Amino acid sequence: MPARPTPTPRPARLNRTLLPGLLALGLAALPVVAAPASAPVSAAQVQAARGETVYVLACAMCHGDRLEGLSGPGLRDESFEAGFADLPPLGLHDLIRDTMPQDQRGTLSPQEVLDVTAYLLGENGHVLPDTGLNAGNLSGLLPRQQDTPPSP
């Protein structure tokens, strides 16, 4: 009688509660992995990439995957200018922390709020510190119109 073949081991199943977190980690790393080796990646770029991932998972359903606005306001270009451009970055951070996501307020971690704030500010032309946003430097940042000195 021929010997039975050894069964091929099956891969372990992923816990469905861990899958979104694993996907988020993978998506957040993509811009860093895709960057050319010669281009240094700043902490602000890494933070904004993490913020984009959080945005897609927690904010895009209302604000659109391209920040264009759906049931919530647009968060890019004229829409952002009209609603948030005069708000200091700390004010935007606090607004996100205290009111978003609208149907699950307070569910974002402090780091996720900082990351989403960095993403939104960066997407709207705000100059971010190379070290990224943190509790220590956030309060000192000015609204975008004031982040560069006026031209003579």
- SSE order in H/E notation? HHHHHHH
Radius of gyration: 20 Å
Average pLDDT: 81
For the secondary structure, the number of strands is 0
Main β sheet profile: none
Question: Helical stretch count?
Answer: 7
Name the helicity range: 40-55%
Instruction: Give the termini distance in whole angstroms.
Output: 93 Å
Q: Low-confidence spans: pLDDT under 50, at least 5 residues?
A: 8-19, 28-33
Beta fraction = under 5%
Which secondary-structure class do the elements indicate?
A: mainly alpha
Shape: globular
List keywords for this structure.
about 150 residues; mainly alpha; 7 helices; about 50% helix
Helix-strand blueprint:
Blueprint lengths: L18 H16 L8 H16 L1 H4 L13 H8 L4 H11 L10 H14 L11 H4 L14
Description:
This protein is mainly alpha-helical and 152 residues long. 48% of the residues lie in helices and 0% in strands. Helix 2 crosses helix 6. The chain is globular, with a radius of gyration of 20 Å.
Summarize the structure.
The protein is mainly alpha-helical.
